[in-house]
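Appendix B. Raw example, untouched.
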Amino acid sequence: MQQVDVLVAGLGPGGCAAALAARAAGLSTLALEARGPEATRAQLILLRPGAQAALQRLGLPDVTEGRRTTTIRHVENRLRAALMAAQAEGRTAAAPAPFELHWHTSVSGLDVGPDHVLVTLRDATTGSERQVRARHVIDAAGGRLEALGRPARERAGPTHIVATAEYSAPPWFDGIVGVHDAQTHELCMLFPTWGRKGVIVYLDARPGPGTDGATHVQRFEALARSLDLGPPQYPVMAVDVFQRALSRPTDDRVLPIGDSVGNVDVLWGAGASSAIEDGAEAAIAIAAAQRAATPAAEQARTREACARIFARHRAIVRRGRIVLAVRPVLERAWPKATLPAVQREAVGPPPLLWPAVRLAFGRRPQPR
């Protein structure tokens, strides 16, 4: 049976950061992702200074290449490229520690013991299963391990449907633009994609009961036709981004990070940043714990790391709730229009957008 120091389940931004940090700390690492290697999530994100600094320490000085805004897809592809380079280097004698990377592989079983975690892995391409013995597991699977008995996140907010898609139509606008409908309280936001090669569109419904995903997708598609965006590059996604959160930190050898601790409302936009910070801290803490002199000390350091990540992440989630609470004010800052029948000339930027971004997210750290 294969044995590793740490197994990372899920390779979104947080899982990638965790795997890279674990390798840099000299831990034998197995990283896996249920999806394929190419990232497809095009949601726009703002990388906070803490996340930028964490990536700098991992040798990725500026994954946004000088821009404050980027997409989850771009960040994941940059980080996954670094993981694949680490995998190639892991096959050489100069590798700092064994490193394995597996796509289309998911966790199908977890047996957490006092000194290890027995993990059952399932290969989606072959249907085969195997077991791995890991000293620690970093749960970056966004809550998917709850089906295997991990502590469940509790619902911590109202229903909040958001639809989004990416289009190859070149942006006819500068910066970020949008409109809001004063009658339905829907908020439409448009962002230029990386290199201004396309447009990312959001249609944000008013949080609360009364909206369903199918109806919201229909309104989104009508909006896209009004704006003459053409066919989307990927299917339109409509998700309920209501907040979920663990009620307390875990106390065993499985360390949840990112959405597995609690998801951050999309209007706050700090989910990927907090996941990156969580992942880097979890890997560094695991390396320190595994160097402890006794099993009791190792266990105590693991619990302390879980508590720190939980506390910081919950603080970020609380800020997200504040942003959601003031959504009616944010909504009115955008130009008004009747949705979904809106023309391109109706969209525009809200005043004081970038001063507000700097206040919320801080100034970008300079690349080293």
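End of appendix B.
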